[in-house]
Amino acid sequence: MKKIFLAKRNALFSSAGISWGASSLALALALLLLRLLAPNFFLHLVTPVFRSADFVSAQSHSFLSSFRDTAKLALQNERLLEENAALTNENRALAQKETVLTALLGGTSRGITAPEVLASILARPPESPYDTFILAQGSRAGITLGMEVFGAGGTPIGVVSSVLADFSRVTLFSSPGVSIHGWVGRASMPVTIFGSGGGTMSAELGRSANVSVGDTVFVSGPGQLPLGTVVRIESDPSSSVMTLRIMPAFNLFSASWVVVRDTGALLLDGLPHTTSTLP
Amino acid sequence: MMRGLITLLAFISALFFPWPLTALLAIIAAMREPLVPLALGIFVDTLYYVPSALSLPLSTLLGALVTVLAFFVHSRLRTSPVRDL
Hints:
- Chain A has 279 residues and is of the alpha+beta class.
- Chain A has helices at residues 20-37, 39-65, 70-105; strands at 116-123, 132-135, 148-150, 156-163, 168-172, 179-184, 189-197, 200-206, 216-221, 223-235, 241-248, 257-261.
- The N and C termini of chain A lie far apart (65 Å).
- Chain B starts with a helix and ends in a 6-residue tail after the last helix.
C-alpha cells in the first residue's frame, strides 16, 4: 500500500498562516495591556524609541538646512543676534523695574519661592494626533496633577493632566475642549480661549470689540503672560460675534523642553474630562 | 513581503513622522491587510492618548472604521465576478 506522506504543519509557526494584520493587532493589544497595567514601565520601554525619533528629526532638519543659501543664513543669523541682544537688554530692564515695583508694594519677587521642574519632552504633536506632550519627569521630580507648563520665555502652554513616577502627560491649551480665560487687544478685552486642535486656539468676541490681527493674547499667571497672537479674524455679517484665530507664541511642534510650575491656578477645571482610570 | 513592509513602515511612522502620514500608510495597508488600521489606531492611542485631551480614543475609533470598510470592500471583491476575469 502506498503511504502518503503529509508534512506536519504547526498552526502557530507556519509562515503561510502568518497574517501581518493579526500579528500587528496582537502586538498593539499587548502594548495597550502593558500601558494599562504598568504605565511607568511602558514609557521606560518606549523612551529610547522617542529619543531616537528626536535624533533623526534633528539630523534631518540640519541636513535639509545645509541646502539653504549660506549668505542668506549668515544675514539672518546676524539679524537674530541683534534682536536677541535687544530683547535681553529689554528683559533686564523690565526685570529691574519689576523688582523695584515689587519692593515698593512690599511683596516678594516671583520665581524665587515657586518650585519649578525642568522637563524634556519625549513626544509631541505632530507625531501625536492629540495636542499632548509626554514629559520625561514625573512625581519623583516633584510634578503634580494640575501644575502649569511653560515654554521658553515663560509662555504658558498647558497643564499636567496625568502623572506617573518618572513621566507625566501634558494637555496643551490648544487641545480641543480645553478652555482658559484671558485678555486680548490694547483694551485688554476679557475672553474665553478654546483649544481648536493642531496647536491653535480660538476665541469669540462681540463684533464691536476693538481687536485686530497681530494683537497679543494674554492669560493670567504671575502677572499677564503672553499666550499667543491673533492671526485671523473671522466675521460673519449675519452673526453678532467674531471668531479670533490664535497662534501660540511658542512653537509646540519643535519644543524640546518645558518648565513645570505650580502657579496655584485651577487649570484642571478647564479640561473637558479630568477624571479617568486610564494612566 | 510587501504586506510586512507596509505594516512595519506604518508602525514606525507612528513614532517618527507626523500623524497624517501614519493615517495615509494605514489606509494603504488596509488594501492588503484590513486589520492594520485598527492595530495602528490602538498603538497610537496607547502611545499618545490622554483622556483629558479628548473624551474618545479617536485613533482607535477611526482605525476600527477603516478596518470595517476594508473588510466590506474585500468581501465584495471576493464575491464579485470581476475577480474571476
